Amino acid sequence: xxxxxxxxxxxxxxxxxxxxxxxxxxxxxxxxxxxxxxxxxxxxxxxxxxxxxxxxxxxxxxxxxxxxxxxxxxxxxxxxxxxxxxxxxxxxxxxxxxxxxxxxxxxxxxxxxxxxxxxxxxxxxxxxxxxxxxxxxxxxxxxxxxxxxxxxxxxxxxxxxxxxxxxxxxxxxxxxxxxxxxxxxxxxxxxxxxxxxxxxxxxxxxxxxxxxxxxxxxxxxxxxxxxxxxxxxxxxxxxxxxxxxxxxxxxxxxxxxxxxxxxxxxxxxxxxxxxxxxxxxxxxxxxxxxxxxxxxxxxxxxxxxxxxxxxxxxxxxxxxxxxxxxxxxxxxxxxxxxxxxxxxxxxxxxxxxx
Length: 354
Fold this sequence. Notes:
The chain is mainly α. It has eleven helices and no strands. It has helices spanning 3-56, 60-102, 104-121, 124-182, 184-193, 197-239, 244-256, 263-275, 279-308, 312-326, 330-347. Helix 1 (3-56) packs across helix 2 (60-102) and helix 2 packs antiparallel against helix 4 (124-182). The chain is globular. The relative contact order is 0.06.
């Protein structure tokens, strides 16, 4: 075969692969996502299913159903307990709501008095700037309020309209996890028969690397959430908060979300305390936020790098590039992709560097 023929064959193969990837991500990923998630979860649970089957001496269907139920019940039970606890806290808070509403005018007047005192004591250039800002807010306030109200109504409408689809997606994923885990060997054998023999070994190695990498990433994220929770709980207990455990758990879960962080909770809380005159608690919340941010920034590259034997600077570079090109979500996606590439390189699935 001539070099031109080899070049044309590789070019056509590459174009076909790129076209197939575009079609898949553009039109097929959404409808197939519940079943792909079920396949991935079943692959990660398969070693435990085999271990339970050998240990208990039961049929595969029973072992798969037992393991799947336990793996789904643990996060589901934790979420249910959190909701129950939240309901208890909300009921206790609702009993204090009339007292809080009755004291709101006095608190608002006190806040206005403090703002007036601060305005009178500020320099002349700052007062002029504040006057200009107040005049601009008076002019643009009604339109801004209308825009914010329209955005809130649109967001609420979108959320309500998405609830049926989200419920259907969740139920389909749960059922697909059960059915896929029960028939995982048969499904795996079917998919294997559809691949050329030259691809089967690489695809098997890629699947093993994917499972290992996802488990390592989940372990690293769990350690980060635990570290954040311990720091917050220690700080809240030292501050003498009434619901320190619930507040620490809620803030740690918010910190685990890609777009949000502990600052979403702690900074507005601290500013509110400072404006209301509770300077000690406001400063303590700001210090707690700074400590948590520093620990999270130092630990995340080390944990992600330690799971794949990467230098911490490499994981830090991946997070920065992910943020630069894809926003906050890229800070999570790019390190995971880097972990996958490292595992694929070590297993010989791909050869991207020496």
